[in-house]
Write a structure and sequence with these properties.
Layout lengths: L1 H27 L6 H8 L13 H23 L5 H18 L1 H8 L10 H21 L5 H23 L13 H17 L5
């Protein structure tokens, strides 16, 4: 029985560390997060986390992957039903909602040492999945368009969604967001405009 209890604790510790890590990042950001700090927060010895993360970078990578997994699951749910337009709007809304709820985690995922000078290969896998989730409905809606045109449309769509989320996260567009509209309504309208442009019959 004692062996089983010890095994369970070790198996559960990784999850506890990730949850505590996300909570720390939400409050303080990732720059000051250390393995020792996290161990102290969870209440284990300084060496215990190293059974799960070989160093600080591995810990940060695991936390970023946890965030990407959340986004990927949301995208899968968003694209399960509806027209291409509806699916794209839902994905855009969900991403911006995530960015609003977890701005510090988003920074770790997209603008940190994990992405400079190039994204970690483990993150690229999730980024590729997200890209494909956008490509599929655009390709479906624009049947007959060249792959080059579809990729340009997706690039423009993603740039708008991520750019809007990033600018809002950095509090750079508060003054220009229409005050008579709620934040959710502003988000929906921005995403809808971006989706309409991506799926519209545009000419170069």
């Amino acid at each position: 029985m004692a062996t089983k209890a010890k095994t369970y604790h070790r198996e559960d510790l990784r999850g506890e560390l990730l949850r505590a890590g996300r909570a720390y990042i939400a409050e303080h950001g990732h720059h000051s997060l250390s393995v020792r700090t996290l161990a102290n927060t969870v209440g284990v010895s300084p060496g215990a986390p190293y059974h799960h993360f070989k160093d600080r970078r591995a810990l940060l990578l695991a936390l970023a992957i946890d965030g990407y997994a959340e986004i990927t699951d949301a995208a899968a749910e968003a694209t399960s039903v509806g027209t291409p337009e509806e699916r794209l709007v839902r994905m855009g809304m969900q991403f911006i909602d995530f960015a609003t709820r977890s701005p510090q985690l988003l920074e770790l995922m997209y603008e940190s040492e994990l992405t400079s000078p190039a994204p970690d290969p483990a993150l690229v896998e999730f980024q590729d999945q997200g890209h494909e989730a956008l490509v599929k409905p655009v390709r479906e809606a624009l049947d007959g368009f060249s792959e080059e045109e579809i990729e340009v449309r997706v690039l423009a769509l993603w740039s708008t969604i991520y750019g809007f989320a990033s600018l809002r996260r950095k509090h750079m567009i508060q003054k220009v967001e229409p005050r008579e509209l709620g934040r959710d309504e502003v988000t929906r309208k921005v995403v809808q405009v971006a989706v309409n442009a991506a799926l519209g019959n545009l000419t170069s």
